[in-house]
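SAMPLE LOG
Freezer: B-3
Tube label: C17
Construct: single chain, 203 aa
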Amino acid sequence: MSTVLGSHLSKTICCAAVLAFSATAFAEDKPATPPSGAPDMTKMGPLSRPVKNPDKKGVDEAFKSMMEACKRGDVDAAADNVDFPVIMLSDDSSGAAKSFSASREQWVAIMKPMITNMPKDMKMTHKHDVTFLSDTLAVAIEDNGISTGQIKGKWKSMSVLNRKDGKWKFKQMAEAGWGDMPPPGKGSASANTKTPTDTIPAR
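STRUCTURE (predicted):
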């Protein structure tokens, strides 16, 4: 996946360089126009969505709401902070990347055992650093910690959030090590859950 993304990024940069060179070379003659078939990057793509109002407070509130719901053991309140379907990304014990798009019912089925059965002595820590791709799309890299009984540890995770109806919600969640756990389907805790067509594929 990284190779494909790198290829697309390289192509985008090359296109931008060609357009910039054309604009400079022919500025005295006539306004530069993009090659036939090429998109106008001021109207489509990242140049059309510059970050003008980074709402860090709003993103912080989304994380706070999610954490408070989890601490209360309220999985439905936690789900209210998610924009479904949500992309769940992880890797398995062999290191292969796995992902699937989860409905609300599937997400609740995955999270309910973890959220509702938290040990009373569990202590959790969380910090996040957010980068805005636009005023409505953001990526957060998270530092997490847990301490309960003999289990103690720290790990990184990642979330993509989008602003929907004036509120930031989680659109993608990424955390290592969950790829060997099959997504909920028939026979799961949720009677209404159906197996997704893009259930974690073997790679």
